[in-house]
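Slide 14.
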Amino acid sequence: MRILILGGSGFIGRHALAALGRRGHAVALGTRRPAAPHPCPALEAHFERLVEPRAWQPLLAGFDAVVNAVGILRERGRETYDRVHRRAAGALARACAREGIRLIHVSALGLHAGARSRFISSKIAGERAVAASGADYCIVRPSLLDGEGGFGARWLRWMARWPVHFVPADAAGRIAALHVLDLGEAIANLCELSAAPREAEVGGMAAYTMAEYLDALRAARGFPPAIRIALPGWVARAASHVFDTLHFSPFSFGHWELMRRDNLPSPNALPGLLGRAPVPVGAVRTRPGERRSLRAAGGRAS
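Slide 15: predicted structure.
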């Protein structure tokens, strides 16, 4: 198959690229920086400009499937939540429908109507636009991702090493963290299925609060339990707005909202897609050649 991975140099995209490459598929990636070194052919793709189906047609020519792993944590100039998460995703889906191309659209778990975060509401709107497009699509909703090279995952691994953990007191929602290597394999399988499901919620087998997840990351690296200090909810919310303004850390207002609710797959499609149980937190072992293939794709295996 010929497969285009949008956001192919990002955390999710490069692991999907590596998984598909190991299976012998012809893979190209879409990126804002096509002139940078890449392990495969690269096409220039600026989502804030690709808000009409006709704009997508030259990019999609010759492909059998497209993986959309593009998302923005914070807005920058014309890269707004509405243009990137809703308008571009909807235009891509309608273009895929016209060309008979399968679309694997990566969204997120825990999205809920009535959320005050524009990040969350734009992701919901993007899902609705994909579902209304008439395309052969699958919306993949992963829980929190672990693994080397991810912005949020790197911060959480770093914070887990601290002897004191500061966690919002109202972060009572449970997460089913999974490793990005498992997500890459699941996306590859969805590209290959003769009939992909319309939705696939994926996560690990254990349910953690954020405090418990930091403890699990810490224990997996052999550290003793940390001291836990609960931050009042209003402090955590205020900090999220400050971080959004400064574009500092992965903690945002949207993530503060997500942490207050369960973020669990129901049902969990990951074991069925992998044909095995997902790996537990901190227990990932690379297969022979996998570290090399991930380096070639711009990432590192754990």
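Speaker note: The longest strand covers residues 136-142.
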